[in-house]
Design a protein that fits this description.
The chain has about 500 residues and is an alpha/beta fold. The chain contains 18 helices and 18 strands. It has two domains: about 180 residues, Rossmann fold (3-Layer(aba) Sandwich); about 250 residues, Aldolase class I (TIM Barrel, Alpha-Beta Barrel), CATH 3.20.20. The protein starts with a strand and ends with a helix. About 40% of the residues are buried. The mean pLDDT is about 95. This is Radical SAM domain protein.
Length: about 500
Amino acid sequence: MKRLLLCIPNQSVHYRGMNARPQVSIPLGILSIVAFLRENGWAGDVRVYDARLSASFTTTQEKGGRVTLFGDDEATMGKRIAEIAPDVIGISNMFSAQFPQALRMAEVAKQACPNAVVVMGGPHVSVFPEETLEQPCVDYVVVGEGEERMLALLRCLEAGETPAIPGVLGRPEDRRLLRDHPLVKVNFIKEVDDLPLPAYDMVDVERYFELQANGFSPRTREWGQRAVTMITSRGCPHRCTFCSIHATMGYRWRAHSPDYIRRHIALLRERYAIDFIHFEDDNLTHDSERYDRLLNILLELLPRLPWDTPNGVRGDGWTLERVRRTRESGCQYLAVAIESAVQNVLDKVVRKRLDLAQVDNLMVFTHQEGLRLMAFYVVGLPGERLEDIDATFRYALARYFRFGVWPGMNLAVALPGTELGRIVERDGLRDPSLPYAANQLTTSEFSPADIQKRFRRFQRLKILIFLWRSLTSWRDLRYNASLVWRYRSSIANEFRKAFGM
């Protein structure tokens, strides 16, 4: 049987003048693949190598400027891979901005084990499968969900057969195995309950807890010491233009059953003593009745298990009773995805089916129940006018002042694999030589300078409201003081940017 090594690359945290916060979390996608291989009787030897876990920093000077890497350097990665001596090497890449590191790991892997088969997967690869396959260090590309496709590929390789698997590319002609769709190129697992629970035993869970609790969590508000991410559903039927989830998870919403979720939580609580759950579904509250059943599970737990929704929930479908039960079940805060304060922009630019009046109801309910609420907004989209953008800034500040709804303001990023990315490329609204980043779009209505000027003013006013709320509410003072102390470096950086220091 073959030896399979599944890898997570190191991260670029400073490159081409941009800074990114180092992030570490348990690699759920890889652990789900391992569990699926076990469940289906694949008898090969499986190892997992996460190059981030050393938490070391390496700085080099390259053609584009200074580059700082988080995790093992190339020499260490090559040594680790060579010691394991795998027959097949799978490399997971979550974000387009980090794709160069995934590609570099593939090159290092080929140098360390020239005869190994290198397979790449993840969101970026799912959008650009053919371009990825052109790289000499990549033998196969897996598009979309990896569990079934990785098993099928391994069986073909063991049998010495040429793979002909929908969603797996090994030759240019395998393009015919993809669907003719600009965003969704493959089919997806229909019954997600058929998947086993992730194979947490394959990694050093304690090391992840240690790093997350000491500043390397992907979440901006990490209150747990032993926190985990849980995904209870896959896919999203909505078509927000900036969202990239459909290439890897599809439009069809597929949810785990209450029994599956109950077993998953029990495993994590009993074996790993978790103290916090981040529900990171792309659409946790899509089915309100199903969400109520999730609350029933959480309300059964004694003592209560704190949780939140850092990936955002829908702003509609809420009642006062549902908000009350959410708080009583252990929720520490909800994040709601609003996007724009202008209904016409929501309808025609973002293409999000959301009634802003229902969002205001949610704000009233959470304020009344004392449940913290954060809101996501995005400005700088093609089709917006400056007055629309100004209206969203005003709305966000007014709701923060009145209801304490923390405004998470995002400047548009035209990510690959999104409708926004296609519009921007078609209309030439962005310099394609730049690495993907926020606020790079120029339209007939605005420039990046217009957006930046307004964003800085918004940041200054947000800080003033933050101070005002801290001084007028004992509850906010305690919470905000903890927030400032825990994230003092990031907050100081935001303060400097807001005031041009």
